[in-house]
Each structure stands twice: as C-alpha cells, then as structure tokens.
Amino acid sequence: MGKLSALISCLLLTVGAVMAQTAQTQVSERLLPQWLTGLIAVSGFLFLTFVGFLVKKAWCEESSRGMTIVESTVRENEFAMTNGNTYETTLDMVRSTEDTNAYENLAIDGTDDKVTAM
Amino acid sequence: GQSSPNPTSLKPSSDKVTINNPADITIIIVYFIMVIGVGVWSMFRTNRGTVGGYFLAGRTMTWWPVGASLFASNIGSGHFVGLAGTGAASGIAVGGFEWNALFIVLLLGWLFVPVYLTAGVITMPQYLKKRFGGTRISLYLSVISLFLYIFTKISVDMFSGAVFIQQALGWNIYVAVIALLLITAVYTVTGGLAALMYTDTVQTIVIIAGAFVLTGFSFAEVGGYSTLLDKYHSATPRNFSSMDPQRYNISPQCYTPRPDAFSLLRDSTTGDLPWPGVLFGIAIVGGWYWCTDQVIVQRCLAARSLTHVKAGCIMCGYLKLLPMFLMVFPGMISRVLYPDEVGCVVPEVCKQVCGTEVGCSNIAYPKLVVSVMPDGLRGLMLAVMLAALMSSLASIFNSSSTLFTMDIWTRIRPQATERELIIVGRVWVLCIVAISICWIPVVQAAQSGQLFDYIQSVSSYLAPPIASVFLLAVFVKRVNETGAFWGLMGGLAMGLCRMLPEFWFGTGSCIFPSNCPFLVCGIHYLHFAIILFFCTSVLVLLVSYCTEPIDDQHLHRLVFSLRHSKEEREDLDWEQEEKGRRAREEEKSGIRRLVGRLCGGGSGSSQDQEEAPEAAEQMPDISEDPVWKYIVDANAIIMMAVAVFMWGYYA
Hints:
The complex is a heterodimer.
Chain A (H helix, E strand, L loop, with lengths): L1 H21 L11 H49 L4 H8 L11 H4 L9
Helix pairs in contact in A: 1-2
Chain B lengths: L21 H24 L5 H6 L6 H12 L2 H14 L5 H24 L4 H9 L3 H34 L3 H50 L2 H8 L42 H17 L2 H8 L4 H14 L2 H16 L1 H4 L4 H8 L9 H9 L4 H36 L5 H28 L5 H25 L5 H25 L12 H4 L3 H22 L27 H26 L26 H25 L1
Protein name (chain A): PDZK1 interacting protein 1
Subcellular location (chain A): Membrane
Membrane topology (chain A): Single-pass membrane protein
C-alpha cells in the first residue's frame, strides 16, 4: 500500500512540475528553484506515505476485527447445531473424561441392597 | 559562409593511446590478479557440487554481495558508452532509465522475491510452470529470454567494449574480445554463482572508484557544474554545413543541443523522451528487467534470508543514483570539451572521426578517458571498463546457462542427474561464448550508431507482455494457463507488428529521416510499451475469466496473497516431476544392476543419495525478524525519499 501511494505521489508531483515546465521555453526560467521543487516532492511523498500507513493500520484492524467476529459466529453456530442433533455428540459433550461413572446412578444400578436394619 | 573542412585541423582518428607505461600496466595486472584471486577463494567457500550450490550459491549470500552483484550485473560497458553518448547527444533524460530503477528494485524485493522464494524455484520459467502448469509458457519464456540475452544484452555490451577498445587503445578487436570472454568464461564456469557474486563486489568497487576519479577530472577540466550548465547549450561543432547540398541539408536542430537538455521530464509530443514514457514506459520495461528476468532474480534467490534480499535491493538502489553523475554528466562534459568530434554532424566528418556517418556521440566516454586522464589512471579506467564488461557478461552467461540447463535440457533429458546438469551448464557457457565471438562481425557491421536505439526498441516491443503476465500471475489468482499463454502470444504478435516494419525501414537519423509510415513508427517506443502492456493485460484477464480457474490448492505459496500459507500444495507440474523422477530411478537402478553384475554384487549402496535437481527440500523461509523488518522498511522509505528529491530537483 505504501509503495502504491508513493508511486502515485511521485506521479502527481512530477505532473505538477512538468506542467510548470512545458509552459516555458528556456530551461533557466524555472518558476521555482530546483532544490525547492525537490523538497516539495519529498514532503508530498512523505505525507502520502504517512497517509498510506494510517490507511493500512485501519484496514488491518478492521480485517482482524472482522476475523474474530467471523470466528465467534462460527463457534456459536457449532453450539447451536449440536443442540439435540445426534445422540453421540450430546452424550460426548457431557460425558466426563476422568470418571466414566460420573453420570451413572450407582445407587439404582448398584447390586447391593440397602436394607435398613429393623 | 561555407567552411570547407580542413583535414589537418581535425584530430586524426588514429590518435590512439596505447597502454605502454609501467603505471598503467601495473594497475591492469593488479586488477586481474584481484578478480581471479577472489574467484578462486570463493570457489573453496561454497559447495559447487549440487545444483543449489552451483546455480544459487547455496543460498548463503549476505546483503552486500547481493546488492553489489545486482548493480554490477546491471551496469555493463553499454552503460558507460550508451549513457554518456546519449547524454552528450540529448541531455540528462536518459538518466531517467537509471533513476526509475530505484523504485522498481524495491518492487522486486518487497513484492516479487517473497513469492519466488516460497515457491522454491531456481528459474523464472520454472515458476511459471508451477504457477500455471503445462510446458508451453515456460518453453516460450526460456527461448525468448535466451534470444533477448543474445540480441540485446550481450551484443550491446560487446559493442560498447569494442568502441572503447578501438577508440582508446587501438587493440585488435578480435584478440581483445576473445581474451576477455575467455577470462570471464573461466571464472564463470568453474565458480558458479558464488564466484560471480563475490567478484561482482570487487568489480563494483573498481567501477565506482574509477568512474568517480574520471568525473572529478572532467568537472575540473570543464570548470565546474554551473559552467557545464552554461556552456552545454553553446556546444555546437564548427562544421555544420552540408558538403553535398544536392543529397541532404543539415537543419540547425540536428547539431544544436536541446533546450530541455537539463530536465528529466520532457514534453509528451515534441520531446525525444516524453515524460509519460519516462515515468511509465521505463517502469514497465524495468519491471521486466528487474522483477522477472533470470539474471537479476537469481541473485536475490541466492540470499540468506528475505531481510538480506531487501537490504541488498536498497543498496543497489542507492548505487543506481550514481550513473547519472558518473556517466551522463561526463558525457555532456565531453561534448562541451570536444564539440567537433563528439558533436559532429556532417556525415563525412563523422566518418573520419569515428568511422560511422550517423554521429559520434558514442565516443564521448572513451574520448574523456584518452584526453583527460593522466598516465596511470588510464589503466584504472581500462580496468573499470573491463570490470563492467566482464561482470555483466559473466552474469548473463551464468543465468543463460541456468535457463538452458534447468528448463530446456531437463525437457530433452528428464532423467538427467545433478552432476550431468552441472556439466551441461558449464558446456553451455562455452557455447554461448562461441556465439558471442561469432557475433562480433555483426556488431561491427551494425556500427552505424543505431545499435542503442535498436536495443531499446527491441526491449520495448518484446518485454511488456512478459512483465504483464508475471505481474498478473503473482497478484491475480484467477489468471490461468490459457489466459497467460494467449496473452503472451497476442503481445508477441503486437510487438512484432511494430518491430519488424521498423527494422525494415530503419530508424534513420536527423539528416536522413527514415520513411517509416506514421502508423507504424509514429508512436514513441516507450508509449508503445505502455499500450502493449495494457493490451496484453486485458487479453490475459479476458481469456482467463472465460476459462476455468485454478484451484487454491495448486496455488499455495505461488501467489502474493498465499505466500505465507503453510498448506500442502498439489503441484500442477507433478506429472512431469514424476516422470523425471521415475526416469532417474530407472537409470540409477539400471546402472546399479549393471555394476552389480560386473562387480559381483559388491557395489552395495555406494552411490550417494542424489537428490532430485529441484530446490532444497525444506521450503525457503520468508519470515522476518520484526526488528530488522522495521529497519529495512524504514531504510526503503528513506531511499525513496532521496529518489523523489532527485527526480523533483531535475524535473
């Protein structure tokens, strides 16, 4: 981006210089001294480079913000899609990895009969 | 009144200065020892046994050989003779060719080389083959690049070397050129790219030091910069009336210096180098030369990392500021000091002075060397010219051998092993040296002073389609093989439609203008380059959008937008690579079986693992250290600011 703006700036300034140039016949009759033309060209170029920097920064921020928005929407969609979609998926999401019996009701499934002593 | 030319008042053309004093001879011998010594030393530094080592210097170069090699490969004897001569004839606008390159070389380092590096290619046709698939585009590019090397770069450098040798030294042209070519061939063939790049660094130092010395002496002789500005406009020759009024008349504009001689940007209709052409046409041709041509890109690919490439490009840019002051201004000084020889206009007079009727502006630089430099320093200037000539020729030899070996030979013999390719590369250098020697008589016959115009025209008519296709290939994913091929063919047809009639009619001179019809030759060649570039781009995009696109999976790390992607790429040329690999395997196993039978099974696995002659296995890394990235980017902006200031100053 910076390069493009640099080239455009160079073009604009040299077009300006040329328009001033082609109007005259003698090379000694310059409207501005040569060093001044050079300085104006440089300042224009630096200004346009600065503008290019700002534009690039703004664009990058927007695109990275856009990226995070896209990522979070994708994640949300995943959550929405897995709600009651397939049995395995739902089960896998809530199944505990450490304790395989975490969601089993041991009291009901257990073989020991709890009998209160009379 | 009519002044008849008095032959004795003209400096006789046999006023040659032979290098016969000890100071000159010592300097020349020291120069040759230095160059050959550096060549030999660099031979022991890199491994030249592999393709990567021979053609790409093992990818170990730091930024200063890269920058110096870029500069020395570009600056040839053609620049000394051509820039000075055109500067003498028409002023400083020809320096626009050099100063435009300051920006283009940055495009090379920032936009194109990252893509070439991640693509993992050695030659430019290889890149196109991977990018588009198919073989016709890469074949066309190899052939036309070799053609352009022989007809433009080699011939112009040899012509200029010949002009210098004949004007300043009076040596036999064949002996001198053959000796030079053989010395160049020796260190090119043996050392490969590494030797070239290190010797280029020496050559750069010699070129700049010598040219500075000459510029200093020239300005002292003419009386300073402001005196040059005043005196240039009155540097007219004494003899300007026609000797044969029935045949021709000489109008004053043919021998008076141009009023816009000191401005870079001239009128778009009446100027000899109109400003749109200077700004955009030269940028397009420069885009071909710096960003897509094998000679220049190969030096960037040999660098250690992307940061080194960028730093080398910046160094080359700064060095490219110098030719305006070291070659163009001395050329103008030469015309001020010797208006009757350098600025001669009457054809008979010119023929006596320099052997060609059209004009003698080409002798501007050699004349200065002969007349202004004291003893001892003339030897230095000869070393400078030799440095420029040898560095450019060596680079062209090496790159053309790379092109021939990796693109044409591997098509003829896909089963070629690495060792065979390196041998073929070396043999090709000798072949092209022989072709260059056979080219000398053609160059001499064409010594009509028109050679530089022909060179510029040939580049402007043939290069823009290539620049356009490469630019679109790197930046536009939609472009596919059909579009690129038909774009190249259409561009070639358009360029030939302009080039062939113009060669047929001849470009003529100020006194004898050519009768080329306006429709063909009316548009300035730089404007034609711009038109050709846009027409080719439109054609490429049109055909591409009408045919199927290339999938992203084939394009990872081949286009600018995907240069950082780490995904697996399905190469479009995998069929060819497979064929080549299978052919090599067959040959290897065939040999192994034969050897086994001969030696009774004792060979075993003695054959070392020969890798397929592609780039190194791991992908070249284009990540950059952030600190160095900022430093390099800041330096680039500073360099562009300096360039813009110089353009603004001389506009």
